[in-house]
Design a protein that fits this description.
By secondary structure, this protein is mostly helical. It has helices spanning about 10-25, 30-55, 60-80.
């Protein structure tokens, strides 16, 4: 599979750093970039899963929210 990456002006230094690292580690730029991309995606997905731990599995709709606010306001009015 082919993947081309556009490097905008101002990011040339990043390309130079990748080239230096590739020489230092005896890896191709392609290997380094794929490794970095894989690491980034795995970290992102791991964080996404962690957020799911706190989910109560309840999906609120707009009407539920409206009903809750009305009930809350009704209680406040009755208390006064």
């Amino acid at each position: 599979m082919q993947l081309n990456i556009y490097v905008p002006k101002g990011k040339e230094e990043l390309v130079k750093k990748v080239e230096r690292l590739a020489r230092k580690t005896h890896q191709s730029k392609n290997e380094l970039i794929l490794s970095a991309l894989e690491h980034y995606v795995e970290e992102y997905l791991a964080q996404e899963i962690e957020f799911g731990v706190y989910s109560l599995g309840v999906r609120a709709t707009g009407t539920d929210r409206d009903r809750l606010y009305r009930e809350h306001l009704d209680r406040k009015v009755r208390i006064r």
